[in-house]
Design brief:
Layout lengths: L1 H27 L14 E4 L10 H10 L6 E6 L5 E4 L10 E6 L6 H19 L3 E7 L1 H12 L8 E8 L25 H8 L9 E8 L13 H4 L12 E8 L12 H13 L6 E3 L4
Parallel strand pairs: 1-4, 1-5, 2-4, 5-6, 6-7, 7-8, 8-9
Antiparallel strand pairs: 2-3
């Protein structure tokens, strides 16, 4: 009798544990309900290599709590198979919602990220009706947004990318010899395959796109770098964006806080992101380079 009772208790315990695991999985993979937010423009935040949905928490927190430009946020991650996992949901009262996007394959190439980004924002449009969006990407996240901007600008299944902010993004990769020269450059010693792709496809950019490139330089003297990305590589977007986007602006940060890993978290970066997303409005085309 005692053995039978013990077996029953173990079975019941197993069922409770299994139920709890299934419940947690259900919460983790809950698909948020469809809500009509077609009049809203979400802010999509994208991490750099090795990052996740929390990598741009600093920007999200400032936008929501200090600047009150957003009222709700949600996270979503996407696998290499295109499977989307949501954490949280948006309500009908979402005002300028923030969506933190993470790639499960966080070491994949930025062009692959752009393909997964396409799948993710197509789902967002189908779910919430977004017709346009703004994107902020750190490092390779900015490159993913750039690939997206060139490859899907006319795709009606996704929201139109209205504003693009790239922070410390290595447009011409990381080699110092290929990125040698002063910061007032109009050409680089050598173009990588990626940079050549951006130049070759520049006319595919939406002519109404507004872009901001933020670059770091650790000191006034010595090599121009944020510690990982050559400063000229971060500013190499000037070689293909100004002629084809409506607005192109550069921001250069100089000093020991302009380090690549945390460039997106500096007070100046946060201020620039807020200003460009919420305060900057241009009725005409313009280009503003840091060298000017």
């Amino acid at each position: 009798m005692k053995k039978q009772l013990l077996v029953m208790m173990l079975l019941l315990l197993g069922m409770v544990v299994l139920s709890a695991c299934q419940s947690d999985e259900t919460v983790e993979n809950t698909v948020p309900p469809k809500v009509d937010l077609k009049t809203e423009t979400p802010i999509i935040l994208i991490h750099g290599s090795g990052g996740d949905t929390h990598s741009l928490d600093e920007i999200a927190d400032h936008l929501m709590n200090d600047f009150a430009s957003s009222k709700e946020e949600m996270s979503m991650s996407i696998s290499a198979d295109g499977d989307i996992t949501y954490q949280g949901a948006l309500t009908k009262d979402a005002d300028r919602p923030i969506i933190k996007l993470g790639f499960d394959k966080n070491q994949a190439s930025p062009d692959k990220w752009a393909e997964w980004l396409h799948i993710a924002v197509a789902d967002l449009k189908a779910r919430y009706g977004f017709s346009q969006m703004d994107g902020v990407g750190h490092s390779n996240g900015g490159l993913a947004l750039t690939y997206f901007a060139e490859n899907y600008s006319k795709d009606k299944s996704v929201p139109t990318l209205r504003k693009l902010i790239a922070i410390g993004s290595p447009f011409n990769d990381l080699d110092t010899d290929e990125n040698a020269g002063s910061l007032d450059f109009q050409a680089l010693p050598s173009y990588t395959k990626q940079m050549t792709y951006f130049i070759d496809n520049k006319t595919k950019l939406n002519s109404e796109l507004e872009a901001l490139s933020i670059a770091g330089k650790l000191s006034d003297d010595g090599e121009a770098t944020d510690g990982i990305v050559p400063t000229t590589s971060s500013l190499a977007s000037r070689l293909f964006m100004p002629q084809n986007a409506k607005v192109y602006i550069e921001n250069l940060q100089v000093g020991d806080t302009a380090v690549h890993q945390t460039l997106h978290e500096t007070p100046e970066s946060v201020e620039q992101v807020y200003w460009f997303l919420e305060k900057f409005h241009s009725e005409k085309s313009m280009t503003k380079l840091v060298s000017e």
